Amino acid sequence: MKIYSMTEEEREYLKQYDMTRYDRPSIATDMAVFSVMDDEAAVERGKNRSVQNYRKSPESKMKILLIQRGDYPYKGYWALPGGFCRKEEDIYETAKRELYEETHVRNAYLQPIGIFGEPGRDPRGWIISHTFMALLDGKMSKLRAGTDAWEAHWFDVQMDKREIEKNLKEDSAAIINEYDLRLQYENIQLSAVVREKKEFVQYHETVKYEIADCQEIAFDHAKLIVYALLSLQRQVEQDGKIVFDLMPETFTLTELQKTFEIILNRPLLAANFRRKIADYVIETDQMVEGAGHRPAKKFKRNVEAFYR
């Protein structure tokens, strides 16, 4: 294969090329960082203090990392972590840098899920967001210490869908859904309604999202959160391998199934679930014992099923 090299004529052309002929946006990353953990673990990681409850195991929940903005615009509102891409920095490098700065976690699962650049999405100017989804074991994170102008917390995530309109024709369709998004940390409650508009023309799909209502969530980040949650759910439905990036190194099958159920927001039949994930796990020689429960075997991911 021949390697491309510029001719002298091309070099002369580029010397004369004027990049200022076109408006140039700022490039940023926004990250929907998800974890599944109990409230005690979230408090432990976020505030460096623990609350013990020996009577029953705490309930695990889907959580997302949000920061409270200390500057305008949207001062005091809650936003996804992220930042601007530095000169000569790859967008992945920006995302990894920002994720480490917020959580002190390296090498977490990080996947680009969309590009958002609608006019007016940021009052500071034309800013295009490369939005990433990150998954990590929240127990391994260490949130940056809060200040009077800056806070970071793991918020519980709940999202419900309702169908508003559905028109089907022979070669086209129009579907409108709304997603009620609710985010909560202690007594802080955030909410939004995000409308999804799907159009099918000759079986080809076009999807748009718009914010119908929003309470204390900065910029268009409510839309980004819904988009990320839907992307996560689709991948979990597909094969479920993505869920393992939310798990510790070893786990019980019950813990793994519970994480699937939390993401999908519905119960799963144990027998069907275990058949689905059988190729993805390997039994270890470890056991976990709990008061009043039979000892449970611990498993780990089968790397051969992940790296083919």
Description:
The protein is α+β, with helices and mostly antiparallel strands and 308 residues long. 24% of the residues lie in helices and 38% in strands. The protein has 7 helices and 12 strands. The longest helix has 18 residues, at 221-238. The chain is globular. Residues 47-55 have low confidence and may be disordered.
Q: Ends: how far apart?
A: 26 Å
Structural class: alpha+beta
Quaternary organization: single chain
Shape: globular
Helices and strands, in N-to-C order?
HEHEEEHEEEEEEHHHEEH
Helix content: 10-25%
* Largest sheet, strands/sense/barrel: 10 strands, mixed
Question: What is the overall number of helices?
Answer: 7
Strand proportion? 35-45%
Which consecutive residue ranges, at least 5 long each, have pLDDT under 50?
Answer: 47-55
* Total DSSP E strands: 12
Instruction: Let me know the average pLDDT.
Output: 88
Measured on Cα atoms, how large is the radius of gyration?
A: 22 Å
